[in-house]
Specification:
By secondary structure, this protein is mainly β. It has one domain: Maltoporin, Chain A (Beta Barrel). It contains 13 helices and 48 strands.
Length: 845
């Protein structure tokens, strides 16, 4: 505690030395009679708290954080689950370079991301399990954002599918006049991870006076990568230097070629080429963290947006929104590792062909989104109509891979020696292939909405209402190279072709009823129809204000998520295996001790049903003088969750049969066989002290605490993952800020709870899975920023992220389990270290 107080004093001293502290983290006051759109409702209302928990992050708050991308901004919002794999992983075919949003302990596919209240296409490349089938928020320019609205409640009754965990709505700037030019620069204390960029925003026309307003924004970011070898925690995959209990982590696929017994698959201890003593541990080893792999990916992103509003007459307005983003990413992985057939020793080696050079992926991503529409006002109601098209296009171009058909013959016949670098270069090149994976995800839509208030009123006021209908079409075309589809590329994984689409429509209605002066009822009902499923989603909420300074809210929502197109229409694959476990033998009607060959059916499932969710929320809102706070308890129960069952689970559910040839088929392809429940509490408290000696001071503390994050398969017991690997029980953001004359400054302390260092859950029948397991410590990061606006038309700002240069806490699970990144820490943090950034903005008016 003494150390924490000393750090706080030092940070405050630093802040006072460079300026003051930023504006309060509170939304600016609204004129009471102005009604606006707020995420979570189709009915316009006076902005402020309501029956549903909605967090609003304003443009001023975004500027204070110093975030240069949307992904960085999300770290300052404790209700958002941080899982930064896209920025860390450098060899994920679909995920590298992307960023998605997770809420409430559920996956990114359960969060609906909107731009100005309308859907965006999901990333064009994602896994066959459906992971990654979400909007890549790295493609949204942060300079164009006016505010971010986060509905922390199920939203299917308002927005349709994909909103089980909530909705994140990015609202762009409007009615800006003038030209604003911004330049940014940042660099880590180690001299790497350098980034620079800027934006230009131009707005023309005053809507009320001139009858139009047009805003154009273009944003650019260029970032150099940080390599694993350049940070102590990740410089070697042999983590025994940090953890005596860690196993040898270096790869057995060594350039020297380790001989393998083809009968047993065991290593003999010998190698084709002599192994350097420092690399030998039972067999020759290769350290893949020691050279080219990145710890924090580079970036080259450009995004532009055009927003126009045009007055046709006093009762009719036309609008148009067009956005385009382009990103280029370059990733390098180590030269091809594989089991190679050779004409010496046992005839089989685990090797790595160094002469071929690193495997390279150049990824190009484009996001296009456009919509146009009309807004009208009649005597009785307002209405709006819009049509739009969105498209995500991602192309991965690979190099330094090999044709498996040619490769095996070349190594087996001795035409090429995979353990040396002196083979005929021309012959090596003749074996190479350059696979290309091209994906397009599209969404087309049309929607019509009317809303207003009843002509008659209750004693407490008028009833607000909204009705509407939507139509949309989704399509996905994911086309890997033919050799990749056939699984015949050495150094790559097999990927399937998907070409699918579906149409859907919805009708919905919503009411807001002032029952009495202090009690408001919100209700909504939406019917969604897809070709393979239909669902009606209700929502009901209550907002009670027994005192002017105190209010209570409660809501119940039913939500659903339709399976992604790849989950439904991707390829199915079969793999051979043997059933030998006693319980599995009994389940298929045989005696214990059997040994039966079977074929395992994996992949997509066109019979998948929607996942269904029920969300409960109870909250309190208070505002007493300088103090205001909200506290919300929430719970999400999810049924028919899509998962890949184990062999035993599939047999227990009867998911097996025999084909016409008598072969036993066990179906472990995606099934609606899981349940989940997540429960937690959100707290957000603020203290404001206007007119102090250091300006208008605001202190804020916001936290999300998880009570449970549990899942189970049908017939199984609950397994609670809360507090295990990468699923901390709580996250907290503390800030102190002030505005003093022309100075602004902020201090943020972002804290993430520790966790038990295992991917295994808590279960009632086997508590030993987590008992005695090492604990990863709590991590906090301090960030400071300051800004000066004393020069006419200028805003100068700068800051330090990770003020105390803290390294992420070491995680053995991440270090040794090759299902994870093997950088030595969970993807809740970054090992970038202390980072300095500056920004200058000039506004022409």
């Amino acid at each position: 505690m003494v150390f924490q107080r000393n750090k706080l004093a030092a940070a405050v001293g630093c802040l006072l030395g460079i300026g003051g502290i930023l504006l309060p983290l509170a939304a600016p006051a609204q004129t009471p009679d102005i009604r606006v759109d707020v995420t979570g409702s189709n009915i316009k209302r006076v902005e402020g708290e309501g029956a549903l928990p909605v967090e609003i992050v304003t443009r001023e708050e975004i500027q204070r954080t110093g975030a240069r991308t949307v992904n960085e901004l999300l770290r300052y919002i404790p209700s958002v689950d941080i899982y930064d794999q896209g920025e860390i992983a450098s060899n994920s075919p679909s995920g590298s370079g992307t960023a998605t949003i997770r809420l409430r302990g559920l996956s990114e596919t359960n969060v609906l991301v909107l731009l100005n209240g309308r859907r965006l296409p999901v990333n064009a490349l994602y896994d066959s399990t459906g992971a990654g089938a979400a909007v890549d928020v790295n493609m949204i320019p942060i300079s164009a954002i006016e505010r971010v609205e986060i509905l922390k409640d199920g939203g299917s009754a308002i927005y349709g599918a994909d909103a089980v965990a909530g909705v994140v709505n990015f609202i762009t700037r409007k009615d800006f006049q003038g030209v604003e030019v911004t330049g940014r620069y940042g660099i880590s204390q180690e001299g790497d991870g350098e980034e620079w960029g800027g934006s230009v925003t131009a707005g023309f026309g005053n809507y009320e006076k001139d009858g139009y307003n047009v805003l154009f924004t273009i944003d650019y970011l260029k970032r150099d990568p940080i390599f694993r070898k350049d940070r102590e925690i990740s410089k070697s995959v042999d983590f025994r230097r940090l953890d005596s209990g860690a196993p040898e982590g270096r790869s057995s696929f060594a350039p020297q070629g380790n001989y393998v017994d083809p009968e047993t698959g065991a290593f003999t201890g010998g190698s084709v080429q002599p192994c350097p003593p420092e690399n030998f541990n039972g067999r020759c080893r290769y350290d893949f963290n020691a050279s080219i792999l990145t710890l924090y990916n580079g970036a080259d992103r450009t995004a532009a947006m055009l927003v126009g509003n045009f007055k046709i007459n006093n009762d009719l307005k036309a609008f148009a929104n067009i956005s385009y983003a382009h990103a280029e990413d370059h990733f390098e992985a180590h030269p091809v590792p594989d089991f190679f057939v050779v004409p010496s020793g046992t005839g089989l080696i685990a090797g790595r062909f160094m002469q071929g050079g690193p495997r390279i992926t150049d990824r190009k991503s484009d996001l296009f989104d456009a919509n146009i529409g009309l807004e009208g006002v009649t005597k009785y109601f307002d209405w709006d109509f819009a049509i739009g098209h969105g498209e995500s296009h991602v192309k991965n171009s690979d190099r330094n891979y090999y044709d498996a058909n040619k490769w095996a013959d070349a190594t087996g016949n001795g035409l090429i020696d995979p353990t040396v670098t002196t083979n005929d270069p021309a012959f090596v090149e003749s074996l190479k292939v350059s696979p290309v994976r091209d994906g397009k995800s599209k969404v087309d839509f049309a929607d019509l909405r009317a809303r207003g208030q009843t002509s008659y009123s209750l004693p407490a006021g008028n009833i607000g209402w909204a009705v509407g209908t939507s139509w949309w079409k989704e399509s996905l075309n994911d086309t890997p190279d033919p050799l990749t589809q056939a699984g015949e590329v050495v150094g790559s994984i097999q990927q399937s072709l998907v070409d699918a689409s579906r149409n859907a429509y919805a009708v919905y209605g919503e009411v807001n009823v002032p029952i009495v002066k202090t009690l408001e009822l919100q209700g909504a009902l939406r019917y969604d129809h897809y070709s393979n499923a239909s669902k009606t989603s209700p929502k009901i909420g209550l907002y009670w204000t027994p005192l002017k300074q105190l209010a209570f809210r409660a809501s119940y929502t039913e939500s659903f998520r339709v399976p992604s197109l790849k989950q439904l229409y991707g390829a199915q694959e079969q793999g051979a295996g043997d059933i030998t476990e006693d319980q599995d033998c009994v389940l298929i009607g045989l005696e214990p001790g059997c040994e039966v060959a079977f074929f395992q059916v994996n992949g997509s499932n066109p019979g998948l049903k929607p996942e269904k969710g029920k969300t409960y929320n109870l909250g309190m809102v208070t505002d007493v003088g300088p103090f205001s706070a909200t506290i919300d308890w929430w719970r999400i129960d999810k049924d028919d969750a899509i998962t890949t069952p184990t062999i035993t689970s599939a047999l227990q559910q009867g998911l097996f049969t025999r084909d016409e040839n008598g072969r036993l088929l066990v179906f472990t392809n995606l099934q609606n066989v899981a349940q989940s429940k997540t429960e937690g509490v959100d707290v957000d408290a603020r203290l404001r002290f206007p007119g102090t000696i250091v300006g208008n001071v605001t202190i804020r503390d916001a936290a999300t605490y998880y009570i449970t994050q549990a899942t189970r398969e049908a017939g199984g017991e609950w397994a609670d993952f809360n507090g295990t690997y990468a699923l901390p029980r709580w996250r907290n953001v503390f800030s102190i800020s002030t505005e003093w004359q022309a100075w602004e400054a902020s201090l943020f302390i972002r804290t993430i709870d520790g966790f038990i260092d295992t991917p295994n859950p808590w279960t009632a029948s086997d508590p030993g899975l987590v008992e005695g397991v090492r604990k990863v410590g709590t991590n906090d990061q301090w960030d400071i920023s300051t800004a000066y606006t004393g020069f006419k038309n200028w805003r100068l700002s700068g800051g330090i992220i990770n003020l105390w240069d803290k390294t992420p806490p070491y995680s053995r699970t991440n270090a040794v389990n090759n299902q994870y990144e093997q950088v030595g820490f969970a993807p809740l943090y970054t090992a970038r270290g202390r980072f300095f950034h500056v920004e200058a903005t000039y506004t022409f008016k």
